[in-house]
From TrEMBL:
Residues annotated as signal peptide: 1-20
InterPro entries found in the cross-reference section: PAPS_reduct_dom, Thioredoxin_domain
UniProt-recorded Gene Ontology molecular function terms: phosphoadenylyl-sulfate reductase (thioredoxin) activity
GO BP term (any one): sulfate assimilation, phosphoadenylyl sulfate reduction by phosphoadenylyl-sulfate reductase (thioredoxin)
Record keywords: Signal
Pfam families on file: PAPS_reduct, Thioredoxin
Protein name, per record: Phosphoadenosine phosphosulfate reductase
PANTHER family reported in the protein's UniProt record: PHOSPHOADENOSINE PHOSPHOSULFATE REDUCTASE (PTHR46509)
Span of domain Thioredoxin: 325-439
GO CC annotations, alphabetized: cytoplasm
Length: 439
């Protein structure tokens, strides 16, 4: 077989560059496409339009990524019975929504779209959900904290507390994100979860592939159709197809989570995505691992490390405490199981001691053994109870002096509840307080 050798020369920066190419022999069926970035002026000369070459290369790359993502979505929606896409409406997620629409999977119901409302989202987020529901003609399945009606922030605050995220961020993640997320997947009976995680988002995700086994949901398949995309690819796609996207991108936010811990990058909002174009220095958004720089700001994990994940994609995140407190059958601390039972203890006409606690609270955990010893030593003289109060915030504030955990109270025979104010939580200190209160 013979090959043709030819050379192209170009002048760049005053230096003549020559490149040799080897081409296979032409066949009758062969067709030659000349890249428009290379304009052949003569047999031995070529002019090179660098910007045009970059633009064409990016378009080639994006075309490949689109096809790859759609192939992954086709596998998810055609080969699994109940594909579900948890949609956070960030840049990658609106791309996936558009791809699912192009494939017809939203319209034919082969993929359901799920949204988790943490009750701490930006107001613009749920408004944007309405916009894309109308645009793509679908209705999202919305899930929120257990036992709370969708959209009822007051009911959430009443049960879990408006400051739960300040008291314990892991418990907040469990209540507001992980548990409703998992419940949503189970309710929708999904066997394949589609999500927008990418390798470009940081080292925690640097090795993800198009498909993997999810760490939650009992062997659930997880599809990452944008696994190999950069954030720039994502915005290129949004611009190419004029995809509806979150309004906060135009106000300086590269990624959008909870309002309480999400900020613009940079903080002055000088980088924006407006009318499908970037304003300002876009590299501050598009550098590796920069997409989520503005997320989880000011938050730390229980071990003091910087928080970078909300917990949804982390194994074991659904349970941020190992067990309930004073749960053993041998415990001398009696359990109060309901609000009604707590009222009965309060109105019983005899003295008692009640600790109001949260099982995830480190201070409740630290006093467990000492309070158990107190019950073992004095439980024969006075009834000693525990009542989990983190899910009955309004009740324990109004009836059991509780604004933080743990709170120890002595209930007098007349129903008066007296709070133990000291931070000294020892058997002797508890006993002294009981004796002085009931004297």
């Amino acid at each position: 077989m013979k090959f043709a050798f030819f050379a192209l020369s170009a002048i760049y920066g005053g230096v003549t560059l020559t490149a040799a190419f080897v081409a296979p022999p032409a066949s009758p069926a062969a067709s030659v496409r000349t890249n428009s970035a290379l304009q052949v002026a003569a047999q031995d000369k070529v002019t090179f339009d660098q910007e045009q070459f970059i633009a064409e290369s990016k378009e080639m790359r994006l075309k490949h990524l689109e096809e790859q993502a759609m192939y992954a979505l086709k596998i998810s929606c055609e080969n699994y019975g109940n594909a579900v896409f948890p949609n956070a409406m960030i840049a990658g997620d609106v791309v996936i929504t558009h791809l699912l629409h192009r494939l017809g999977y939203i319209k034919d119901g082969k993929c359901k779209i799920m949204v988790v409302d943490t009750f701490h989202l930006f107001p613009e987020t749920m408004e944007f959900l309405k916009e894309i529901e109308e645009f793509y003609d679908f209705k999202a399945e919305v899930f929120c904290a257990e036992g709370i009606p969708v959209g009822d922030k007051a009911a959430f605050d009443k049960r879990y507390g408006a400051d739960l995220w300040k008291e314990n961020i892991e418990e907040y993640d469990r209540v507001c994100k992980v548990e409703p997320f998992q419940r949503g997947l189970k309710t929708l009976k999904t066997d394949c979860m589609i999500n927008g995680r990418t390798r470009w988002q940081g080292f925690e995700r640097a090795w993800i592939d198009l498909f993997e086994n999810a760490p939650i949901g009992g062997g659930l398949a997880k599809c990452n159709p944008l696994a190999y995309w950069t954030l720039e690819d994502t915005f290129d796609y949004i611009a190419k197809y004029k995809v509806p996207h979150h309004p906060l991108h135009a106000k300086g936010y590269p990624s959008i989570g909870d309002a309480k811990d999400t900020i613009p990058i940079p903080e002055d909002g000088s980088v924006r995505f407006v009318d499908f174009k970037f304003e300002g220095d876009k590299t501050q958004w598009l550098d590796y691992a920069s997409e989520r720089k503005g997320r989880f700001v000011g938050l730390a994990n229980a071990d003091g490390s910087t928080k970078t994940e909300c917990g949804i994609h982390v194994s074991g995140a659904e349970k941020t405490w190992d067990r309930d407190l004073w749960e053993s059958d041998k415990s001398k601390v009696k359990k109060i199981e309901s609000v009604d039972a707590a009222i009965q203890v309060k109105d019983a006409g005899k003295p008692s001691v009640v600790v109001v606690y949260a099982p995830w609270c480190q201070y409740s955990q630290k006093m467990e053994d000492e309070f158990e010893s107190f019950a073992e030593k004095y439980g024969g003289e006075i009834d000693i109870y525990s009542f989990r109060g983190d899910e009955e915030r309004e009740f324990v504030q109004a009836n059991l002096n509780t604004k933080s955990f743990p709170t120890v109270n002595v209930v007098k025979p007349d129903g008066t509840v007296v709070k133990y104010e000291s931070e000294v939580r020892t058997v002797d200190a508890f006993k002294k307080f009981v004796d002085e209160t009931l004297a």
